[in-house]
Each structure stands twice: as C-alpha cells, then as structure tokens.
Amino acid sequence: MAEIGVFQKTETGYSGRIQTLLVDVELVLVPTGTSDNKAPDFRIHIGDGSGPEVGAAWKETGQTAGEYLSCRLEDPLFARRFRASLFRSDDGSWSLRWMRPKSRQARAR
Predict the structure, then answer these.
(1) pLDDT digits over 10-63, tens only?
(2) Distance CA 109, CA 93 (A)
(3) Which terminus of the chain is more exposed, N or C, with fewer CB under 10 A?
(4) Contacts of 20 (CB under 8 A, 6+ apart)
(5) What is the three-class DSSP state of 106?
(6) Of residues 93, 94, 52, the one with CA closest to residue 73
(7) In DSSP terms, which residues pair with 38 in a beta bridge?
C-alpha cells in the first residue's frame, strides 16, 4: 500500500493532505452524526469543511489493523470511485493508504 496522505485527528474529525503525482489537496473529514449502519460516519470535504464534498468514510475494524477508516473519494477526473484507508501511525498521525485495485483479468487467473 502506498501512503498518499497524512492526517491528524481533530476535535471534530480529521484533517490532512493528499499528495500524488496529479493531486495535491487539503481535506477534512467531518462526522455525519448518523447511527445508520449503511450511512457513512464522515463526509470528506476540500479545504476547511466548507468546500465541496468529495467523498465519505466509514469506521472499520480489522484483526491486524485495529480501528481504521475506509474512505471513498469521487472526482470527475477519476475513471471510477477512488478507495483508500486511513490507518493510525505509531507517531499518532493517520496515514491514508491506497492500493491499486486488481484488474478483472488478474482476478480471473
């Protein structure tokens, strides 16, 4: 998994920056306050939270990763929904990690 961003936990959610070859943007994750299991736990916005909504995140728990956020980002430049996971790092920050999805051909082999 490639680290594409570093985030900090804030009083209300998370804030950080995604940096790739084509993307360099500050994002915030704002809690939705809903208790519906299917609804996202956070909305992802550009900038300070007043910018456009560009995605959502759900709380997850993994056996080895512990608690993390499963993020889905949308952008007209992306061919499809962009998925990444926000994991807690040893230094207290949160690392946004992305892995290239396996192609359908590779899964069929």
Answers:
(1) 999 999 999 988 889 999 999 998 877 789 999 999 998 889 999 999 999 988
(2) 38
(3) C
(4) 4
(5) helix
(6) 52
(7) none
